[in-house]
Amino acid sequence: MIYSDIAIAAFAISVMADLFLFRNSMLTRAAFWSSYAIILPFQLLTNWWLTSRNIVMYSPDAIMGIRICSAPLEDLLFGFALVLSVMGMWEFWGRRGVQRH
Fold first, then answer.
1. Element (H, E) at 79
2. By CB neighbour count within 10 A (0-12 exposed, 13-18 middle, 19+ buried), where does 45 fall?
3. Shortest CA distance to 51 belongs to which of 19, 25, 73?
4. Given a cut of 80, is residue 15 above it in pLDDT?
5. Model confidence at 1, in pLDDT bands (50, 70, 90)?
6. DSSP structure string for 19-60
7. Where are the transmembrane segments (predicted)?
8. Alpha carbons 46 and 6: distance in angstroms, whole number
9. Could you say which DSSP state residue 63 is in?
10. In what helix (H) or strand (E) does residue 68 lie, and over which residues does it extend?
């Protein structure tokens, strides 16, 4: 599997989990989009720093070729999937009364 396939799968799985497994509908909430808007600039800055200095390199055959702030689009898909999944699980387990003591 190439990086693009994995990123697209992670994105799709996180959206499906939000809608059908966790049943949070985070994607319809302003709180989710506000949180993502806060996180996104830091993700772009970090991705730019790592890729523009060749600390992290990608094979051109493994990515779609679209780059934003020097990083492949796939990195944004992974970041989105991560944020959605973590917020979804947080909400899901919080509704069930799971708390850390």
1. helix 73-95
2. exposed
3. 73
4. yes
5. low
6. IIIS---GGG-HHHHHHHHHHHHHHHHHHHHHHHTTSS---T
7. 6-23, 30-50, 76-93
8. 21
9. S
10. strand 67-68
CA dist 76 and 64 (Å) reads 12
Domain ranges of the chain: 3-95
d(CA 80, CA 100): 26
pLDDT band at residue 98, thresholds of 50, 70 and 90? Answer: confident
Query: Which tokens go with 22?
Result: 């966790």
Residue 48 near residue 69 (C-beta atoms within 8 A): yes
CB 51 within 8 A of CB 70: yes
Instruction: Specify the pTM.
Output: 0.85
| Residue 96 binned pLDDT confidence (cut-offs 50, 70, 90) | confident
